## 1
Amino acid sequence: MEILVILVPLALMLGGAGLVAFLWSLRSGQYDDLDGAAWRAIADDEPPQEAPVKR
Amino acid sequence: MQITRDFSHYVRDAGAGVQHIDLAVEGVHCAGCMAKIERGLSAIPDVTLARVNLTDRRVALEWKAGTLDPGRFIDRLEELGYKAYPFETESAEVAEVAESRFLLRCLGVAAFATMNVMMLSIPVWSGNVSDMLPEQRDFFHWLSALIALPAAAYAGQPFFRSAWRALSAKTTNMDVPISIGVILALGMSVVETIHHAEHAYFDAAIMLLTFLLVGRFLDQNMRRRTRAVAGNLAALKAETAAKFVGPDEISQVPVAAINPGDIVLLRPGERCAVDGTVIEGRSEIDQSLITGETLYVTAEHGTPVYAGSMNISGTLRVRVSAASEATLLAEITRLLDNALQARSRYMRLADRASRLYAPVVHATALITILGWVIAGASWHDAIVTGVAVLIITCPCALGLAIPTVQTVASGAMFKAGVLLNAGDAIERLAEADHVIFDKTGTLTLPDLEVMNAADIPGDIFELAGRLALSSHHPVAAAVAQAAGARSPVVGAVEEAGQGVRAVVDGVEIRLGRPSFCGAEALAGSVTLDPEASIVAFSKGTEKFVLTVRQGLRPDAKAVIAALKARGIGIEILSGDREQAVKAAADALAIPEWRAGVTPADKIARIEELKRRGAKVLMVGDGMNDAPSLAAAHISMSPISAAHLSQATADLVFLGRPLAPVVAAIDASRKALHLMRQNLWLAIGYNVLAVPVAISGVVTPLIAAAAMSGSSILVMLNSLRARSASREIV
């Protein structure tokens, strides 16, 4: 059971990392437009810039 | 005279040589629009950011400072087919957004703590039935406490604060039992952990907060969205004024940027945005919005004009005496707000539920403790059982029952073109059983339509439309719109109160009063529809007469039939003339109607219906409807209405159809049904769980399963409100 000494802090650290990531995403405004975000996920990517045709 | 647009009021510095502006955009509703707008705007050189917010219907733009005129974005959006307006965030909205973010942060912390405490609790639960050592259990309990106590202290703030406010005002609300439950559960768990007990309720307390925060966040998010939409509407109505920045140069600036002493230009057909005195020009003004007087007043040098009055015929120069917040119109709006607050507060379903809830639960817990003591249990065991009752009855599902339905239902209504102005609008609308319609602008479209366009030769009609572009008169605007005219006739001259004239290819053309065009004889021969007004057009010696009127909304008849089918009483109360109202009532098959009704009569009629026990839905627009909108049980306004009535109406709807009225009634009825169902689900859960808790056999495992089970059930049930909007008419 000594393994708990490593595993428990490890688990808490992973959870804490998740929390920090959430707070970061909140601060950077990723929850400001949930309707739009739902669509952006399935929107087509920007069409690639057409390379200038060489003659 | 040259007109420039000045947006500097709305532009702010985003740092690093970048400027930022927010625009409210009309008509953005799908992913396609979003991509189209973003691509279109990014294509402008020097634009560093163009991002659409689909939820709030806005676009944020950033560009290298000094390189671009923001007017260019509006023009570009116009080319793409969207109307955009510069936008200034109100302080009320800023507060809602901040609150929304705070709740989300609390929710994040609570959810993190719940997951980690649960990770520690499950070993304890399984260890308790197998071979866990007491020392290991204590270690896990202490770890749980280490996570749960600070997390609850942070994430519980919204509840603790609100409970404290209620208690210091010597009242109670739903947050009082929530706070008591959470604090007792945590406190008891710490004491139990110190005494090496088998059970601790850290997980239950923190999970409770998580679920309640979900409900709280959804509720707040709905409010935030309503506020955002209201802010957009304010921007769409953007009050601007043409201010003189040079002797012959005017600039279109927001009212907020106008100061007393400035001189503004007031063109025919414009609504005045400031209070002031006329210093030049001669015109008639319509002050009905302010004084209720429908006859036009002559304005000349020295005449005072007030914000909200409409300039009818000539161009005026006005010296500003008060702008924005200090105007008479702003004063009336404030008075009306006060009147609204005085309206007896409707007792919301959630309030009624919580008023019953707290005493019952606390009494049950107390009786449990006393009962066990009398039955011979130790005080310690009795109190532990009593606290378990409080934990298991904590209003998890109850807290979610109503906000989840409201969120889903308001989203469904939003899609159907209905916006909620008041939080309890859904509940009150669901109860409505009698609808009073105003006629003008409600049953009819607010814009004028040319009725006999088909009888006029196409080229003549187009010419009339192009000439009409030079006038600001509402009738002229209707002609221009109907003709689809784009390029104004060069050299057109407007004669105040008469019409416009110009010379094209050596022939004089005129549009205006029949007398102005020499077409009295022709005008007299037209059989006049009671609602129509007449405008004449002459080209040389050729004379034509156009009849212009407000048409009924296209689906009005179907909507009235649908309302009847739902057993809802319908009547028309209109201030208009009898023939006009009768014509509309006959067309819509509404037997009950009254014409020539004053605002006071409308209120009297509403009061009479109220006494008979009817719940009146008032659908109307216009300033003189504002008091009756406030007097009714629930009110709706079309969005084109004068903005004062918008502030008064509980719901507003967009677009030409009247169908949103039925859609909103259906959606709200379904939502109320689901709210009740959810409350019964929550009560049913308590009826099952409380006896178990009283008997003292509740373990933290049972509490966790019961609470999350009931909450998820309620949330899933709420999702059913989504389908409401699909069954329109």
## 2
Amino acid sequence: MAIEVRVPTILRSYTGGSKIVEGAGDSLSALIDDLDAKHNGIKGRLITPEGGLHRFVNIYVNDEDVRFLGALDAKLSDGDSITILPAVAGGALGFAAAAALLGR
Amino acid sequence: MCLATRGVAKYFGNVNAVLTIDSAIVRAIVAHARRDHPDEACGVVAGPIGSDVPARHIPMDNAARSMTFYEFDSMEHLRVWREMDDNDEEPVVIYHSHTATEAYPSRTDISFAGEPNAHYLLVSTREPDSEEIRSFRILDGVVTEEEVNIVDATVKS
């Protein structure tokens, strides 16, 4: 099952510079495991040690934010297109407070 | 301290520590920051990939609507990034305002900075009648300030 994954600049060190890679899996977590097998280390940039989606990235399935599709449990099908974007966020607020506000 | 200087257009590519930006775009960014004050404002200036020329100003919604935090709306973020992709553009500048503190990246700004090729432009609107405008590279948690070279389109060669 082929799923197209669009990789942001900051993660292309894991994909040998490739902007688009292919993966497989029937859920987002299975896809990320598959990507990590081919591009060692990329999982750690997407998933926290606690096993949740990292607060610094947004992941989309086609046109939907995966947070609205069950996050790591989001179901994937052949031909889906995944887009990974680094979240653009910040501000004068302290880091701990910002992380809590994001609730991720 | 404001490092902005006026002069003729100087485009050096990505290797030099300078952001060269059109005065009309700076005015539009400042107007956006003033409009949203006391909330933080945020946005992007897109330019052709590899050019290091900020050409198209895209004000973004601050989904957090906060005086101390900003976050792009995730759907607007996707739409704008796809649009840039389709146009062979990249985010040359990512800007936001600090509304009660200096125009220097906070620890939060540094933690989140995820576009290694972007100039991170900060505008402080804490003074009612003047703005502090500063620009930074943020790479792997390391902040490097750079000169802001504000140019007039009319004098671009």
